[in-house]
Amino acid sequence: MLAVIQRPNIPTRFVLGSDGQHDRLCCPVCACPYVHPAEVVVEQGQTRTVVSNESTQVSATDRFLHARGSLITLDFWCKFGHSFQYALEFHKGELQLRLDTKPLPNPDAPGQLWRD
Q1: Is residue 2 situated within a structural domain?
Q2: pLDDT 10s digits, 71-99
Q3: I need a labelling partner for 72 at 20 to 30 A (CA). Which of 7, 51, 90, 113 fits?
Q4: With a threshold of 0.85, does the pTM exceed it?
Q5: Is residue 12 part of a domain?
Q6: What is the CA radius of gyration of the chain?
Q7: In-domain check, residue 9
């Protein structure tokens, strides 16, 4: 059985579940423990890399013109139809963390990173 642990001192609402042996990332909207990784994006300098269930794509970006560091976004979805994204942005020696949530854009085929 999973115990849901909310970390109130983290303003972006990390919700962790634990079965006593392993901690699990849960949905920050509904605390569902069935979370799937959907996409990872890394933007650094002039390069943007997107890893999804279909491919890995590398393209040019102009982030370096307006940002002071790299950006990493981690997209997830849960079995109850929520999608959420943690964004980690490096700026002036600090790593900033942001959480965005929204309904799944396509609940019939949400896509996820590879698994067996």
Answers
A1: no
A2: 999 999 999 999 999 999 998 889 998 99
A3: 7
A4: no
A5: no
A6: 16
A7: no
